[in-house]
Amino acid sequence: MTYRLLSLGCQMNTSDAERIASVLEGAGFAEAPSEAQADLLGVVACSVRQKAIDRVYGRIHEWNRWKAQRPLLTFVSGCILPEDEAKFLRLFDLVFRIDDLPQLPEMIRTSGVVTPAAIDAAVQPGRSVTLGHTDQFWGITPRYGSEHAAFVPIQNGCDKFCTFCAVPYTRGREVSRPATDVLREVEGLLARGYRNITLLGQNVNSYGRDRPGAEPTFAALLDEVGARCDAAAHKVWVYFTSPHPADMSPAVLEAIAAHDSLAKQIHLPMQSADDKVLIRMNRNHRLDQYRAVVENIRAILPAATLFTDIIVGFCGETEEQFERTRLAMEEFAFDMAYIAMYSPRPGAAAARWPDDVPLAEKKRRLQVLSGVLQETALRHNRCWEGRTVEVLVEAEDRKPGLLVGRTEGRVPVRFAGGAGLVGSHAAVDVTHARPLSLEGELAVPAALAAS
């Protein structure tokens, strides 16, 4: 029997999908080449964004039409608000919380589909802790979607309750994964030759606070991960996402500076640069605090690239308040910014407030900030023209003969190169800078250049 998964939303959902795939394959399913050839179809949903929910409805209506032609079982899991869950129960055969994933084979059997293997095949043996639901989920060995890059969850849920965000209502309160499990998964990835590891959480730098004394701080966990990756037989770049500005301590930055394997790239969501908007967002930081963190980053990690998230058109945002965000973007000169127009999400506190910035104005503000980003990122990238950068090659480009990769600072690079480089590090001579990427050619090895 076969399955096919559709993962929507953030990197955490991608990581969840890898564990779902592992459970299904442990229960005897094989991945189908396409949805049309699968006996079991599943969605890892994202209630945080309306577009993602719209895609869920689009797919399930199509799948339910297929049921008139052949036997088919459908399920949905992931980040789901109660309001969406109630609707999904009428459309999908199975709806379950991601923490309940270990019970999925039994749910499938209860639905009348016999699975040939037990869930135990997918769970790591020899664990020394008592397993709760979340620990059982984390105990599942993922079926990683890449042979060189992997996501490692270290935390689930969020305690921040930003008024625009539904995550605390879809994933619950913060729960830290045991550090022993995190380190075991990292060590397993190193043994298999992985070169890119991303530690995942909704607010990674509050890691361990829900288990004081039982788990290390985030800075200490980074130090442990960095020590292991520094000692690997191959080069490794370790990233993390996402931190919260209110919790970003110098100790975290110092841990990154102390280890070659901890990548010099920081994603620090700002959301807005106006203090009154930040208060309405319940962001627990102000512009001066954010500026202090950026100053620490520049002082401790001068080579680091700086990424951010920004929302335009939040409830009640005036032109003057938006202007402060524009000025802050110029001041901080981000290498990358993920800019989104505000849209209400049911369940989040701000959904009860007037969405009073017109769509046309939201689009204008997004374009203004995108223009600032294009200018600052291009200024950064032009510094690389005529120089050689190291990249981790991610894939072959759609255009034959070209490869795509990223620098340690996660700047995309498109370059001409040979076959067999995907998943390895390579040196690239940069020939041209674009606002959000670089172009170049594979550098000639030093030995050949000398001859």
Walk me through the structure:
It is globular, with a radius of gyration of 23 Å. The protein has 451 residues and is α/β, with parallel strands linked by helices. The chain has helices at residues 11-26, 50-66, 82-88, 104-110, 133-138, 167-170, 179-191, 218-230, 250-258, 275-281, 287-300, 319-332, 359-382, 446-450; strands at 2-7, 30-31, 40-46, 73-79, 94-95, 149-153, 155-156, 175-176, 196-200, 237-241, 265-267, 305-312, 336-341, 388-396, 402-407, 412-416, 425-434, 437-442. The N and C termini lie far apart (57 Å). The strands form five sheets. It has a five-stranded parallel β-sheet, with helices on both faces. A five-stranded mixed beta barrel has the order 14-15-16-18-17. It has a three-stranded parallel β-sheet with strand order 6-9-10, sandwiched between helices. Helix 7 (179-191) packs parallel to helix 8 (218-230), helix 8 (218-230) packs parallel to helix 9 (250-258) and helix 9 (250-258) packs parallel to helix 11.
Tell me the layout of helices and strands.
Elements: E1 2-7, H1 11-26, E2 30-31, E3 40-46, H2 50-66, E4 73-79, H3 82-88, E5 94-95, H4 104-110, H5 133-138, E6 149-153, E7 155-156, H6 167-170, E8 175-176, H7 179-191, E9 196-200, H8 218-230, E10 237-241, H9 250-258, E11 265-267, H10 275-281, H11 287-300, E12 305-312, H12 319-332, E13 336-341, H13 359-382, E14 388-396, E15 402-407, E16 412-416, E17 425-434, E18 437-442, H14 446-450
Parallel strand pairs: 1-2, 1-3, 3-4, 4-5, 6-9, 9-10, 11-12, 12-13, 16-18
Antiparallel strand pairs: 7-8, 14-15, 14-17, 15-16, 17-18
